[in-house]
Amino acid sequence: MPPPADSAPRGATRGVPIALIAIAVLLLVARIAVGMYERGRFASASRGGPFQGNVQFNVQDKVRWQTIEAGEALALRTGKPILYDFTAEWCGPCKALEHEVFAQEGAAAMISGNFVPIRVTDRQREDGRNTADVARLQSRYQVNGFPTLVVARGDSVALRIEGYPGKQQVMTQLMQAGLPFR
Amino acid sequence: MPASSIAVPQAVWHDAAPLMTPGIVVENLTKTYRRGFSGERFHALNTVSLNVRSGEVFGVIGPNGAGKTTLFGCLLGFLRPDAGRITIDGHAPDDLAVRAVTGYLPERLVLDRWMTGFGFLAYHHALARLPAATRRDDCAAALARIGLDPEAGQRAVRSYSRGMLQRLGLAQALLGSPRFVFLDEPASGVDPAGVVLFRRLLGDLKGSGVTVILNSHQLEQVERVCNRVAFVKGGRVEAIETLDAGSAHARGLRIRWAAGGAVTAELLRTAAERGGAGFVEATQADSGGGAGRFTARDDEGAARLLRALIEAGVPVVEATPDEGRLERLFLSDAAASPPPVSVEATRFMPPAVPGSGS
Amino acid sequence: MNRELVIAFWRQRGSAAFRMAFLLLVFGFPLLMTAAMPGGGLGIVRDAVGITMVLAAGMIGQDVSSGVLQLLFARPVRRSEYVLSRWLSVAVAAGAIAVLQIALAWLILNARGAPQESGMVLLTMLQRVVEVIQITAVMAMFSSLVNGVGDLGLWFATTVVGGILQLAAQAKGWGWVGRVGAELNRIVGPDVGLVALMRGTGGWSDLVTTLSIAALALLIAVVLVNRKELSYATTG
Fold first, then answer.
1. Which of A21, A134, B88, B265 sits at a 20 to 30 Å CA gap from B221?
2. Which of C113, C175, C218 has the CB atom closest to A20's CB atom?
3. CB contact under 8 A, A8 and B12
4. Domain for residue C76, yes or no?
């Protein structure tokens, strides 16, 4: 019984579906376009510009850092502990911390879910002095070097990490510090 | 389903224009490979040209490494030729419409071990875009045709013997009554019962309008079943032999005589000419007798040749059909081809003696 | 897409004992960890790479080396259909399993007193699915390049080379080298950005990049398979 004519296939076995080519090209163009748009829109203070030192990373920080006032208010409202990231633009390990932890989806999700993240950027070298808020926090938590991570619950300090000991360490300690307090 | 009722579908091509050349046409096919990374190129196929007529059973024989596999690869659209052209019923072998009416049994059949025999056939039935409504019946019939009972069909193929796998492969190749069937060493690893089955199925295919391309080392099988045979060596087609028997065609005879007559080549040649036949060669045996090969135009010619020889005093004791012609292709190199009887450069073969088993 | 091919591949994977054992490991271990450390939230079930790898490895390469493709391509099956069906087959299976994993993690976290916001959970599930799309597409491309399960090797090699390039860029300040390294890492490390999208800190770029890499990888895979010469060494 011959196959019915309408089910008989057409074309060659080797062929690239036009649809696939079109989709791939469109997405590539979209990627370039959106990338340019976002780079312009989200050059945030936490990065201080696209070129820093000799390193160019197209890193997109996944953690939504709060300003100091907004963050502290948010913490009061939600009862979540605050995660302070004391950092500076010229600090290499800070970049590593940012790239390996804050730019990773999973880690960022965890941080955003469990803490109120506040980034405190030291501007001593660039500007000669810091703002009052920054100075206050640095002295309160006795920040001597960068990066320093502090998890604060109200007046008590649940966690303090000086320097960047590596992603695993940071994550583990953050996870422990983030255990809910009920 | 009686095997003789293999139905052959008409090709359903989309272009309304009549087909230019039905069958398989190969023109100056060339395929080269590079040996290793920086080795020299060698020609797996070197300007091969063939013409397989629609409905023909076409054999391909040749020594190992001759390029038969490459030829198959190109005909099936697996390999792209470096030069030359192949058309199957006017279409490229790569065409989906050609694939839809092609069946293929590869030399090394590889199956997913976990599939059942029936499942395997159903899978290929679906891949071949055959209607789902008849799938069950078609596959059951296919299993029966190759002599596998339904229980075996429900077992995973990892439990199959080599012979069963090969049979299953043939069943898969014949699904949906394809117009073109490519068989690469179909009887390898098959038990004698299977060989008989294969022979019968091939015989059924022959003359039913299906074009069969058969690659086999089993020359008797090839001689028995094929209409024509191509001898491929070193990437070239060295010879194409027509194996059709028929009284209109001439045949080869091997004649043996005892000692006692003064038999010389001259005598044999003259006797042959008188009998209207061709003399190929003769050898003397130590015992005094000898054997010679002749070509006769037909049955009548054969009879006249024998009479002429006997009248010439040759003590003929035995006349048998000349077999092993295909083997001789392998042995001789640029074979000193004996002068053919007729002008066309084809050589001849006696029909299979009836009753000797087909 | 060829339904027959998709289903057949699921059954093929399902009948591979070692693979299924690995899958169980990759599926269950993070769940155990989540139960042990609920403070980590969903972050412990890090990404879908493990699950996808187990299902994807050798998705095309093994067919090439085993010789099954010859029988397949003798049928009226487009080579592109074959590639896309393989991709779909793995992507759907891996995506479903990854989503299941997140769902189970959610239940576990609830039971262990660390409930997660349901919006976040759903977002994570969606994210896994998109990640899987990229990973599978890239593996399809790698699998079209090398036989057997060499695609795993290529994935690993890409990770290593990407890392080396980035380290070199960091040390020597070679900008473009860093970009190449970052791109390589991006190809094997999907970063979908849905969380950022929801939070308004960008993320469109990541999402589009993911889909773009997937589409390109599939295109390359189709082209590679189209060009493949199915010759096999035989005795004749």
1. B88
2. C218
3. yes
4. yes
Within B161-210, strands assigned E span 180-184
Which range of residues forms the domain containing residue C170? Answer: 3-227
Work out how many domains chain C is built from and give that number: 1
- CA-to-CA distance for C28 and C49, rounded, in angstroms? 14
Interface of A with C in 57-76 (CB under 8 A): 57-58, 60-62, 64
Picking from A9, A30, A60, the nearest residue to C202 by CB comes out as A60
Hey, what CATH topology would domain A68-178 get? Glutaredoxin (3.40.30)
What is the spatial distance between Cα B164 and Cα B143, in angstroms, rounded to a whole number?
11
Place of tokens 């100075």: A135
> How far is residue B106's CA from residue B170's CA, in Å, rounded to a whole number?
9
Q: Which residue has the tokens 């690469």?
A: B184
pTM tops 0.80, yes or no: no
Backbone angles phi, psi at B312, to 5 degrees: -80, 0
pLDDT tens across the length of chain C (236 residues) = 788 899 999 999 998 999 999 999 999 999 998 888 877 777 777 778 899 999 999 999 999 888 888 889 999 999 999 999 999 999 999 999 999 999 999 898 888 887 877 887 888 888 899 999 999 999 999 999 999 999 999 999 999 998 888 878 777 777 788 788 888 888 888 877 676 666 665 667 778 889 999 999 999 999 999 998 876 543 33
Residue of C nearest to A107 (CA): C43
In this structure, which long-range contacts are made by residues C177-181, counting pairs with CB atoms below 8 Å and at least 24 apart in sequence? Answer: C178/A55, C178/A56, C178/A57, C179/A56, C179/A58
Say if C176 falls within a structural domain. Answer: yes
Q: Hey, is the C-beta of C43 within 8 angstroms of any chain A C-beta?
A: yes
Check if the beta carbon of residue B66 is closer than 8 Å to that of residue B234. yes
Give the amino acid at A106: G
Rounded to whole angstroms, what are the CA distances from B187 to B192, B206, B221, C21? 9, 17, 9, 39
Q: Cα separation of B77 and B62, whole Å?
A: 21
Answer yes or no: is C181 within a domain: yes
- Cross-chain CB nearest to C215 (options A23, A37, A182): A23
Is residue A35 within 8 angstroms of chain C, CB to CB? Answer: yes
C179 located within any domain? yes
Residue reference for tokens 């770029």: C205
